[in-house]
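To the wet lab folks,

You asked to see what we're planning to order before we commit. Fair enough. Below is the target structure as tokens, and below that is the sequence we designed to fit it. If anything looks off to you, flag it before the synthesis order goes out.
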């Protein structure tokens, strides 16, 4: 049922995105943060932390969906991407906490949007600088996001055949927040913050052996859906217009770099999954959009949602 509803292109569905996020995160208002969280961002009030996280995820979902519709990354204008994004960011109870990865994702989204705008754009210097600047802010918040600078350079080469100036400008944009942040803490003599950021790249503590059977089933189901979605996209990625298949290849490449964050976060699988929710939501939305048997798409999604809700209270 939800798949059919979110296939609509009515703006009213954005309200459902917010309501769905609140509904899925509702248990977190009554449960203290799990011990699986190593490094967290907190206001000191659990209800306020959760409220901020809900607003961030709902806003990110709506913004990501607008990007997808703008560049036709999913055939026809739908709200499936926002639905999948909310589900992925709510599917594990360990994620129900305000943390630096969720906050940084806002700037990753903004930076990736600037990168996609570079396609066939002759006045690209400001966009290149903005993309580097925004991804740098995401890096200051969560250090493993620095890997996206490589994605930005590859995207420039693939999308616009840049001159050396474009590459330098992105590097300048990326340098500004980093240099400012380091200089500020050097001047005020608070260099311990720099060491804290370097060592707090691991946000969640994840151990397979300590998971319940239901939790393992949910994790296996999510991985299975991701594998199906990426396999289907690999078969159909060259269909459609040139712009669409180039941008979808950038989304796949972003997925690869998201997985690459494991190299810099101490194998924090949940943190990497949160980063991966941005590109993977687009890929999975394509899977549900193009399933010929609509009942199968609804059944698969309903099963995923049911296992999620059971896992909340297990």
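Sequence we intend to order:
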């Amino acid at each position: 049922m939800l798949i059919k509803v979110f296939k609509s292109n009515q703006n009213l569905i954005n309200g459902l995105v917010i309501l769905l996020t609140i509904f899925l995160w509702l248990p977190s208002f009554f449960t203290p943060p799990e011990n699986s969280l190593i490094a967290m961002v907190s206001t000191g009030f659990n209800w306020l932390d959760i409220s901020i996280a809900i607003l961030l995820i709902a806003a990110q979902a709506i913004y990501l969906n607008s990007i997808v519709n703008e560049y036709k990354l999913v055939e026809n204008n739908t709200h499936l991407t926002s639905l999948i994004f909310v589900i992925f960011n709510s599917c594990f109870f360990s994620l129900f906490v305000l943390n630096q990865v969720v906050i940084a994702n806002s700037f990753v989204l903004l930076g990736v949007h600037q990168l996609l705008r570079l396609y066939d754009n002759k006045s690209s210097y400001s966009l290149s600088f903005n993309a580097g600047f925004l991804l740098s802010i995401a890096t200051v918040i969560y250090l493993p996001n620095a890997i996206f600078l490589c994605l930005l350079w590859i995207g420039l080469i693939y999308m616009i055949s840049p001159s050396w100036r474009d590459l330098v400008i992105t590097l300048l944009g990326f340098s500004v927040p980093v240099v400012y942040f380091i200089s500020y803490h050097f001047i005020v003599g608070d260099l311990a913050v720099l060491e804290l950021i370097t060592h707090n790249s691991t946000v969640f503590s994840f151990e397979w052996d300590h998971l319940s059977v239901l939790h393992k089933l949910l994790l296996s189901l999510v991985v299975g859906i991701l594998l199906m979605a990426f396999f289907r996209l690999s078969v159909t990625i060259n269909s459609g217009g040139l712009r669409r298949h180039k941008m979808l290849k950038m989304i796949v490449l972003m997925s690869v770099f998201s997985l690459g964050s494991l190299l810099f976060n101490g194998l924090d699988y949940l943190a990497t999954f949160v980063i991966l929710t941005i590109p993977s939501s687009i890929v999975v939305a394509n899977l549900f959009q193009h399933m010929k048997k609509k009942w199968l798409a609804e059944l698969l999604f309903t099963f995923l949602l049911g296992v999620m809700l059971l896992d909340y209270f297990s």
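Structural context that might help your review: Residues 46-70 form the longest helix (25 residues). The chain is about 70% helix and 0% strand.

Thanks,
Computational group
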